[in-house]
User: What shape does this take?
Amino acid sequence: MVIVNSTGRRKSAIARIYLKEGSGKITINDREFKNYFTTPQLQHTVLHPLLTIQSEEKFDIKVNLNGGGINGQAEALRLAISRALIKASPELKPSLKSKGFLTRNPREVERKKSGQKKARKRFQFSKR
Assistant: This one.
């Protein structure tokens, strides 16, 4: 039985996972997968790497998720699962890479500047 750990990040969300052979059970922060990600869109985002390689019932995944919003967490988890699958069996890399699951999305929130309302928005200019 192979136990693989991996990390995925997106925006300010961090997903640390432990992947092992099993029956397809996914536990996120000691909660059931379907209770944590309630919408079908988010569930599909997370399970997409497993669906791509037709092994959604082969692995048990234990996840520690923190930071960010629910969408960023789902995408961080997708990256972590993809990386762990490649550690477990490197021959899966071409199929996962062609779908774009191994690319870390580098976009982050731009910081707010002093003397401005937001990162780029200025305070209203008054001539008089």
Q: What stands out?
A: Strands lie at 3-10, 13-21, 26-28, 31-32, 59-66. DSSP finds four helices and five strands in the chain. The mean pLDDT is 93.
